[in-house]
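Subject — a protein and its fold
Fields — amino acid sequence, structure tokens
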Amino acid sequence: MPKKFIRRFLPEPQAVKNNKILRVFGSVLHEPNLWHLNRRSAAGGFCIGLFFAFWPVPFQMWLSAGVAIPFRANLPLSVATVWVTNPFTIPPIFYAAYKIGSTVLGTKPEHFEFQFSWQWVVESISTIGPAFLVGCAICSIIASAVGYFTLNWIWRFQVKKAWERRRLARAKAKVQAQ
């Protein structure tokens, strides 16, 4: 069941409540729905995390957490899902986003060489920026929608399978009892 699998990776709510750094947020983090793992909260957290994962901004985890709280989505899952984009996956994902954006905008993809400097970033905003940002927005929306519906479907499928197993076990026990 997805619930058992996901729960292994999430922190205990009590550990978060007792964390000295997180006490700044007061009772906001004590909302049980932020920590409860059910189909709705898990799918919402996964969706929110995937949505912000494709944004080319720093502090994606904070943005994800900030949106998960009012939507009462699973907070740890929302924050963890942002790490779909990490230092190893960012280059191919962002390159694909740029290609998608340039295709949608109908512009010819420009050849560019990445340089690790603010000057390069500022100069590139006008040339590759629009296509890149449009591509990131498209990837963000599609990934979050696909993630939401896929997790919902997997969760429902697993629950149906568990119900069927229990039904068969009860029928088998009833036959053996006779």
Summary: The first helix runs from residue 2 to 7. Residues 2-177 form one domain.
